[in-house]
Amino acid sequence: MNDFVYSCPVKVYFGAGAAQKALSREMGRYGKRVMLAYGGGSIRKNGTYDAVAALLREAGKDIVEFPGIMPNPTYRKVQEGAALARAQKIDFILAVGGGSVIDCCKVISAQAKTDRDIWQMEFEDHEYPAEFVPMGVVVTASGTGAEMNNGAVITHEEKKVKTGVLGAFASFAALDPAHMMSLPARQVVSGGFDTLSHCMETYFGSPRTANVSDEINEAVMRNVIRNLRIVAEDVHNEEARRELMWDSALAENGILKLGKVTDFQAHMIEHQLGAYTDCNHGCGLAVIHPPLYRCLYHGAVERFAHFAEAVWGVDGDGKTREETALAGIEALAAFIRDIGLPTTLAGLGVEPKEEMLRAVADSARIQPGCCRRLTPDEIYGILMACR
Amino acid sequence: MNDFVYSCPVKVYFGAGAAQKALSREMGRYGKRVMLAYGGGSIRKNGTYDAVAALLREAGKDIVEFPGIMPNPTYRKVQEGAALARAQKIDFILAVGGGSVIDCCKVISAQAKTDRDIWQMEFEDHEYPAEFVPMGVVVTASGTGAEMNNGAVITHEEKKVKTGVLGAFASFAALDPAHMMSLPARQVVSGGFDTLSHCMETYFGSPRTANVSDEINEAVMRNVIRNLRIVAEDVHNEEARRELMWDSALAENGILKLGKVTDFQAHMIEHQLGAYTDCNHGCGLAVIHPPLYRCLYHGAVERFAHFAEAVWGVDGDGKTREETALAGIEALAAFIRDIGLPTTLAGLGVEPKEEMLRAVADSARIQPGCCRRLTPDEIYGILMACR
After folding, report:
1. What is the 3 state secondary structure string of B226-276?
2. Where is the Fe-containing alcohol dehydrogenase-like C-terminal domain (chains A, B) (predicted)?
3. Shortest Cα distance, chain B CAs vs residue A385, angstroms
């Protein structure tokens, strides 16, 4: 166990009536003016909007609407929200949505409290916001785990960069599986794969000697895989949906990352693919992971072999460690096919132009802690292998 | 996954220099007058006292000493601490010790803020304290996980009851394995067994259908068992000590309990045995667990069989589920012998008088959520089987 400092200040309400419980217990602490932020309007169709708005009115709040947060939320949208929050003297931001809505609000929460440009502040001056408009979350799509941390993935269109920005922690998060039951099957499965990716990208970081964070991670990965197989067959299976909703939060509440430096190269590559193509995040990760791991495993054969045995049930008897490692990667690839996620860029709806893939490879921001830090040429090779 | 509400407000500093980091970063938020609470004085011998006192003085604090908190801390000691905190207008309580010191301080923190008697308030009026003197923790002995929650185990001598009382959460906890390296081997091992017991008593609560909390729990149990075997052979193994220190916190930070109602009958029986005999907590649990489980498993054969396979590596092939379940309990019993913990009341240093055991059985406070709720006669039978 390496050294760490840990706190997760988000209070979680999980299960039936979570939004009702959370809003009635928590909203009394905050002022009257609430920004209600959401996405493309599906919550207006499935009843979640009406339920949440009624709870806010019951709590005596004035609602200021901020709709239209897009998948892959943009920096422009952050600025629009921050301007609205300032103009309307917003006391509290309630994000009702999935990772895109939540992430956008985390950065609005910070940007509304400072005259400095948050992007310049974080990426050029390397300073981080310290003041935030308080916020809460009602989760309507899971997988990103955005409700549990203060990282936000934002796309800066002019700069053609999609990357992590630090914003606010939510004070509370309501996770009611009922709010997610109208999601399309593809989104449920791709969200679950995003969770699995968070687990794997933590697991293949360093150190890779035995430690309880990784052993817990193996348990969460097995749970995600089992329940993803169930929802791929029957998207209405409520128990599997509940497990996946909590798995998503667990993968990003920090518990799996304690004492670890994470890898997250698949995410960094996918983020840039998303910046260039606006592809679905979980599906993009599904395409990238197997070719990435076929390239990475040489740097960590024993860890990949252990992953194969502990997570995929590969029998290592009579195999070299390298063969076992590769069998694990092929089990992951077969799983992606089994649950119906895309396995190529074409399947992802992306035209695999070499120039664009080169630009993605050259702009991917690879972080420290990697299993083996890939060069832009290697990333380009991986993307070409995804065609 | 059943419904739950979860937050753990304790900020953890884990690893080398944790106390230095925690005190220098956190103490600025609190007033000048700090109660420095500890136990029998071992921290004065091993240098921890001097280091912590110097850090408090550096932070500009006045130190008010509160030494002499005993193992199995008493309600009288709580009242003594609360009176001192009031008289000295204490702004912050720093508990430096293991579970006994931490638990005593949690209740002092509550009692110092009210004129009502906390015992009467919680157990007769069923009301819980809402105001606390803020507190922090420097852990010097682990196993109880007391640093992560707001439950405190206190012995009321006149009432002959040792039980859980709700008190304060620490704002921060410093977990530096270096502060524990001078602990006697027996205390390291019995503390680790307390952690394993917390895991098992959560695992055998309800529900017992597959869920991610229990799968994580299995991972933590395997980690505790592996590392306890290491420290039983070599108490100075630093990596194993580090893992056990974080396992202890994990077992009680709530993550394993999400969506579960816990069992905790072994703890409830041991608490009363402790109230009557002042025995070591972890050792008492070691004596009680196998006979308790031999009596309990009929109510949850499949869960005990799964425990045998997933945690102890029992091969269920060619065995009935009952045989597999029993093989797991015998593996637990063998493990207790292997790591040198007592297996009988005599080994625990307790004279097994029938009248005393009857009183223990009759006064054990069995809670809801049990695997199978034992009657006082059954508990008496279990205690007689411990002779």
Report:
1. HHHHHHHHCCCCHHHHHHHHHHHHHHHCCHHHCCCECCCHHHHHHHHHHHH
2. 189-383
3. 35
Best CA proximity match to A143, nearest among A71, A72, A194: A194
Give SS3 for B296. Answer: helix
d(C-alpha A190, C-alpha B64), whole Å: 57
A2 closest CB neighbour out of B15, B219, B258: B15
Subunit contact A14:B243, Cβ cutoff 8 A: no
Mean of pLDDT values over A98-124: 97
DSSP codes, B302-369: HHHHHHHHHHH----TTS-HHHHHHHHHHHHHHHHHHTT---STTTTT----HHHHHHHHHH--PPTT
For chain B, what's the residue count?
387
Cβ–Cβ below 8 Å for A215 and B215: no
Comparing A76-85, B108-117, B178-187, which segment has the lowest mean pLDDT? B178-187
Average pLDDT of the residues in B173-178: 96
Question: Which chain A residue shows the shortest CA-CA distance from B5?
Answer: A13
For residues B319-331, average pLDDT:
98
| Residue B42 CB partners (closer than 8 Å, separation 6+) | B140, B182
Question: How many whole angstroms from its chain centre is CA B304?
Answer: 23
ipTM: 0.95
- Residue listed under structure tokens 């980690």: B223
The residue-averaged pLDDT of B275-289 equals: 95
Q: Compute φ and ψ for A356, nearest 5 degrees.
A: -65, -45
Question: Cα-flanking dihedrals φ and ψ of residue A318, to 5°?
Answer: 75, 5
Burial label for A158, CB within 10 Å (0-12, 13-18, 19+), is exposed
Could A1 and B16 be called an inter-chain contact, meaning their C-beta atoms sit closer than 8 Å? no
A38: left (phi over 0), alpha (psi -120 to 50) or beta: beta
Q: What is the CA radius of gyration of chain A?
A: 20
Q: A10, A215, A221: which to substitute to probe chain B, counting the most B Cβ within 10 Å? A: A215
Predicted pLDDT of residue B367: 77
The string of DSSP codes covering A229-285 is HHHHH-TT-HHHHHHHHHHHHHHHSSGGGTT-B---HHHHHHHHHHHHH---HHHHH
Question: Distance between CA atoms of A243 and A232, rounded to whole angstroms?
Answer: 14
By DSSP bridging, strand A135-139 and strand A33-37 are unpaired
Q: What are phi and psi of B69, to 5 degrees?
A: -70, 125
Query: What does the DSSP 8-state code read for residue A180?
Result: G
- Is the Cβ–Cβ distance between A238 and A248 less than 8 Å? no
Q: Are strands A92-97 and A33-37 parallel, antiparallel or unpaired?
A: parallel
The predicted pLDDT at position B373 comes to 83
Q: What are the CA-CA distances from residue A109 to residues A8, A115, A152 (Å)?
A: 18, 13, 11
The gap between the terminal CA atoms of chain A, to the nearest Å, is: 40
Round to whole Å and give the CA distance between A211 and B218: 14
The mean pLDDT of B71-99, rounded to a whole number, is 97
| Confidence (pLDDT) at B240 | 97
Average pLDDT over residues A170-199: 96
Phi-psi category of residue A68: left, alpha or beta, with phi > 0 → left and psi -120 to 50 → alpha: left
Question: Which of B204, B192, B225 minimizes the C-alpha distance to B305?
Answer: B204
User: Could you tell me which residues come within 8 angstroms of residue B220 by beta carbon, excluding any fewer than 6 positions away?
Assistant: A212, A215, A216, B199, B247, B250, B251, B256
Residue A203 tokens, joined = 């697991």
Would you say how long chain A is, in residues?
387
- Yes or no, beta carbons of A4 and B21 under 8 Å apart: no
Q: How confident is the model at residue B54 (pLDDT cuts 50, 70, 90)?
A: very high
pTM beyond 0.90: yes
Q: Position B293: which residue type? A: Y
